[in-house]
Design a protein that fits this description.
Blueprint lengths: L3 H30 L8 H29 L6 E7 L9 E6 L4 H8 L7 H4 L17 H10 L9 E6 L7 H11 L9 E4 L10 H19 L6 E4 L5 H14 L3 E4 L5 E9 L7
Parallel strand pairs: 2-3, 2-5, 3-4, 5-6
Antiparallel strand pairs: 1-7, 6-7
Length: about 280
């Protein structure tokens, strides 16, 4: 049985469509009656009826739109919540992007191999102003990986990396650094994989969104039907990637992670539900 909320919204949608149709027809009739006003007094009656029809149609259409706006929560329902670090159950698979390194930065990231694990968990005392992402390339990726390997209910098993055409050649280097830097946390059991297919343009939203979707499907396939969460990190990569990854996470209702300017890792879940997803 259809719920009252669904019936109300569908009724208002139908009313707005009918009102829009009447509004178009009445406007055409109104304009066609104007030239005859000077020719005959009888034209005043036709013009008056056309004007009345136009006003009724306009009122019906506007009323339907106002009511739809009033009951917009019945059409689109949004929810968002931050996941507490201590209560977060963890995830089995992680999707992340990888920023491209310039030649002079490759030597810099090699130093991450010898850092103490505590450095990846320790937040900065003072956040840099303005933030300088070039200061520690790939540090945010390693912070997310380190936090994902913390003692939680779900154990990280798969990492799928969405690289750009430039950073695709550096995926093996990143995996090597991650395994050395986070040795002892169980990263030895984690499988690193490139996302299949041609690396997407870092500024192509549609291509990035498609790759995120395929990476999510790949994670589910790797999990083999076992229960577990897939998390999408939205920190690294371009702003376009962040937008695409966030869009996918929100529309699918899956957790996403973000590293703030102080180095703290945050998790959140958001959900956007349309009318056809509402329960009856």
């Amino acid at each position: 049985m259809m719920s009252w909320k669904k019936a109300r919204v569908l009724g208002l949608l139908a009313l707005s469509v009918i009102g829009a149709g009447w509004l178009g027809d009445s406007a055409a009739a109104l304009f066609s009656a104007i030239p005859g006003l000077c020719a005959s007094r009888l034209a005043f009656g036709e013009f008056g009826l056309a004007l009345l029809w136009f006003l009724v149609s306009f009122g019906l259409f506007c009323s339907a739109l106002v009511l739809l706006y009033r009951y917009r929560s019945d059409v689109i329902h949004t929810s968002a919540r931050a996941l507490p670090p201590t209560g977060y159950a963890g995830h089995t698979a992680l999707i992340m992007s990888l920023s491209n390194l310039r030649e002079q930065q490759i030597v810099q990231v090699e130093g991450l191999r010898s850092l103490d694990i505590a450095q990846f968990r320790k937040p900065l005392t003072v956040a840099p102003r303005p933030p300088d992402p070039e200061a520690t390339p790939w540090m945010q990726n390693l912070r997310v990986l380190c936090d994902s390997l913390s003692d939680r209910k779900e154990t990280l098993r798969y990492v799928v990396i969405i690289a750009s055409p430039e950073s695709d050649l550096q995926v093996d280097l990143f995996e090597s650094i991650a395994r050395d830097a986070l040795k002892g946390l169980g990263i030895e059991k984690v499988v690193f994989e490139r996302q299949e297919g041609m690396p997407p343009d870092a500024n192509d939203f549609d291509a990035l969104l498609l790759h995120v979707e395929r990476a999510h499907t790949r994670c589910l396939r790797n999990m083999g039907g076992r229960r577990g969460w897939v998390c999408i990190d939205i920190t690294s990569g371009t702003k376009i990637y962040t937008g695409a990854a966030t869009t996918f996470a929100v529309t699918r209702g899956i957790p996403f992670s973000y590293v703030d300017n102080t180095g703290r890792v945050h998790y959140a879940m958001a959900r956007v539900e349309m009318l056809n997803h509402l329960e009856p």
